[in-house]
Amino acid sequence: MRLSILGCSGPYPAAGGATSGYLVEDGDVSILVDCGSGVLSNLMARQDPAALTAVCLSHLHYDHACDMLPLQYYLMNTGRKLPVYIPREDESPMRALLNAPMYDVREYEEEMTLGDITVTQMKTSHPVPCRALRFACKGKTLVYTGDAAEGESLVEFCRGADILLADGAFMEKQWHEKAPHMSAKRAAQLAKDAGVKRLLITHLPPSNVPALLQDEARSVFANSSVVQIGEIYE
Length: 234
Description:
Blueprint: E1 2-7, E2 21-26, E3 29-35, H1 39-44, E4 54-56, H2 62-65, H3 68-75, E5 82-86, H4 93-97, E6 103-107, E7 111-114, E8 117-123, E9 131-137, E10 140-144, H5 155-158, E11 163-167, H6 184-194, E12 198-202, H7 210-218, E13 224-226, E14 232-233
Parallel strand pairs: 3-4, 4-5, 5-6, 10-11, 11-12, 12-13
Antiparallel strand pairs: 1-2, 1-14, 2-3, 7-8, 8-9, 9-10
Helix pairs in contact: 6-7
């Protein structure tokens, strides 16, 4: 599999940046995971959006889904009806906006097969329905936490992943029990407890310093990095 970072800010983009968006590929299979502000432009620099196998939206907060709206205009003249997976229980206004002829909106199943990639999902702790997603292909595994306020419940879901792409928005001093995201340090503890090989920190608020988030993560789990747009991980 190949993971490409199309956007990594949250909840709004940094200057010249984009919010959450990731491309997971294996051969002819390409899955767009979240589609926040600025992601469509970065996707189009990589491939024809009409050639996507599917879109998997962890949840429907705008910083994870708003570029699904202009994507409709692109798909309008292609004749493509794109499968879009969302949490079953979501009833937000964004869901209604996805009810367009260009999208085949589907609810997550316990396990799905997209080409050679098997996708499983788990609910996370977040103010709206949200899913962590596990992508397995040819003996390799990528886990994306989506937005998650805590990682303790995700340990078994993340167990042994080759790459854990985790919400680590906050410095530890910013985190509190009602926070909607993990701190980088708590994401690192999840990585350590789950025995993953590598941790990638994402959902980076422009007001925080990425290097400091990375330092906090590495104080717990040495093989931690903060992602940047344009990076590709094999």
